[in-house]
Amino acid sequence: MNKQDETDLIPEPNASKNIVQSAKDFMNGVLSPLKGKDMGQMVEEFTSEMTLVAEGLSEDQQKLSQENERLSAQQTELEQRMLDGFHDADVTADEMRKEIASLRSRLEKAEKLLQEKKEQKSKKADGITAMLRQATWLIAIGAGAWIIVTIINALT
Prior knowledge:
- By secondary structure, the protein is mostly helical.
- 94% of the residues lie in helices and 0% in strands.
- The longest helix is centred in the middle third of the chain and has 117 residues, at 39-155.
- The chain is rod-shaped and about 170 Å long.
């Protein structure tokens, strides 16, 4: 730092006197209107003004209390509606679960019946195929016997 900066940091004796004097002037300016009045009259004015302020605050507090009670009642009503809605939704969900379970069991029964019908059809088809196979063998045996008999008769 140079000399100029150092001298700026040290307050001058006149500057501190000026600050003290301006503070005294300010306090005198504030207190001067009060010095000329009677202290009893000032207390009476202060008391009446404070009473007026207290009454206003009391009214505001009553209004806020009423508003608080109204909002509390409204909130309670909304909570009750919401709980009723949740209950209704819960009951509806339970009914839907029961209905889904019923439909699921009906579907399973229908699938079983369909599977049984398919098995019966395949058994019938297997039965018919087996009969045709047996009939084919019988016809083949009969035809073979006829050919043998025809050959034996032709040779004799």
